[in-house]
């Protein structure tokens, strides 16, 4: 009996150790920092475009009045973050402030503070009931911004890092438990997104009969590249349709295995490049590719990015300084 009890205790102890290892094992923040650069640039661009007609989207006399926004948010049990901005001047002040936060996140300046402000800003714009402010891109922006605020996303490839170099702090950024936690949250979030995307597709007849891909590329509203030549290759259309569903449903299972991960990520990059260049959703396609980088090993990221970051650091910090990334 004591042997059985000992086995049970060992099992739960090993399970607890594996759980902690998965979520909190210190890891090099290189992958998180690369995502910060790319996602920060995307956040800056996608919110900068609101400036073309800011008051029409978010102002008190815009397309969606604050009263209607408040009513809609009451239904969704959310708060309209722009409802208290009673004048265009105040709206522009807040907007410019958030743009500065997005820019600072992009270049990695005061990252521990600006990453939090950027996450608040992204959520604020997406929460407001505004035409065009709550699509897939906005949700991915919010996801990435939130998790970037958790880990040391400015440890590498950042102005913060450059300032440390100029002060003589040339030590290599330490591995971090919070960097691992942030990346794990991104990874789990992606798995949930793809799983439910696949489950949603299996409810549609066109995904079963193989015609969904054709109706996608034949839709003028989304067509940015003419792919209608695929009508002469029905078997390929059928394959792409069923492969998309199979990939989304299997993503959350196969992406964790080191042998199948490269194929799953290659399919993800291919699918989102198709969305970006053939369906007219460039920003969403690229944002999803940036999110999938969470599964890239830090060693691979450093091998690709450190030489470039090192040259930039050397040029900006002065030839007398070392050139870590």
TrEMBL record:
<feature type="transmembrane region" description="Helical">
    <location>
        <begin position="29"/>
        <end position="50"/>
    </location>
</feature>
<feature type="transmembrane region" description="Helical">
    <location>
        <begin position="89"/>
        <end position="110"/>
    </location>
</feature>
<dbReference type="Pfam" id="PF05090">
    <property type="entry name" value="HTTM"/>
</dbReference>
<keyword id="KW-1133">Transmembrane helix</keyword>
<feature type="domain" description="HTTM-like">
    <location>
        <begin position="24"/>
        <end position="300"/>
    </location>
</feature>
<protein>
    <submittedName>
        <fullName>Vitamin K-dependent gamma-carboxylase</fullName>
    </submittedName>
</protein>
<feature type="transmembrane region" description="Helical">
    <location>
        <begin position="116"/>
        <end position="137"/>
    </location>
</feature>
<dbReference type="InterPro" id="IPR052964">
    <property type="entry name" value="Sporulation_signal_mat"/>
</dbReference>
<dbReference type="InterPro" id="IPR053934">
    <property type="entry name" value="HTTM_dom"/>
</dbReference>
<dbReference type="InterPro" id="IPR011020">
    <property type="entry name" value="HTTM-like"/>
</dbReference>
<feature type="transmembrane region" description="Helical">
    <location>
        <begin position="234"/>
        <end position="256"/>
    </location>
</feature>
<feature type="transmembrane region" description="Helical">
    <location>
        <begin position="263"/>
        <end position="289"/>
    </location>
</feature>
<dbReference type="GO" id="GO:0012505">
    <property type="term" value="C:endomembrane system"/>
</dbReference>
<keyword id="KW-0472">Membrane</keyword>
<keyword id="KW-0812">Transmembrane</keyword>
């Amino acid at each position: 009996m004591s042997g059985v009890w000992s086995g049970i205790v060992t099992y739960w102890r090993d399970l607890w150790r594996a759980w902690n290892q998965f979520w909190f094992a210190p890891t090099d923040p290189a992958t998180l920092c690369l995502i910060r650069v790319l996602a920060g640039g995307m956040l800056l661009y996608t919110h900068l475009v609101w400036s073309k007609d800011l008051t029409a989207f978010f102002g008190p006399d815009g397309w969606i009045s604050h009263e209607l926004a408040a009513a809609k948010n009451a239904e969704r049990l959310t708060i309209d973050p722009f409802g208290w901005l009673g004048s265009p001047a105040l709206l522009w002040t807040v907007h410019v402030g958030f743009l500065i936060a997005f820019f600072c996140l992009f270049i990695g300046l005061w990252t521990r503070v600006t990453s939090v402000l950027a996450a608040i800003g992204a959520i604020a714009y997406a929460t407001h009931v505004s035409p065009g402010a709550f699509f897939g891109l906005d949700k991915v922006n919010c996801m990435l911004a939130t998790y970037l605020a958790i880990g040391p996303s400015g440890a590498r490839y950042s102005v913060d890092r450059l300032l440390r170099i100029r002060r003589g702090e040339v030590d290599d950024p330490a591995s971090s438990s919070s960097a691992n936690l942030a990346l794990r949250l991104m990874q789990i979030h992606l798995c949930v997104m793809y799983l439910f995307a696949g489950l949603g597709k299996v409810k549609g007849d066109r995904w079963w009969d193989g015609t969904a891909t054709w109706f996608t590329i034949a839709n003028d509203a989304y067509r940015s590249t003419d792919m209608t030549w695929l009508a002469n290759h029905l078997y390929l259309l059928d394959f792409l349709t069923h492969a998309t569903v199979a990939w989304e449903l299997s993503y959350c299972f196969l992406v964790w295995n080191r042998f199948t991960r490269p194929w799953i990520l290659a399919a993800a990059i291919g699918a989102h490049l198709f969305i970006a260049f053939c369906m007219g959703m460039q920003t969403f396609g690229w944002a999803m590719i940036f999110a999938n980088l969470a599964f890239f090993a830090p060693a691979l990221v450093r091998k690709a990015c450190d030489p470039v970051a090192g040259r930039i650091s050397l040029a900006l910090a002065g030839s007398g300084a070392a050139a870590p990334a």
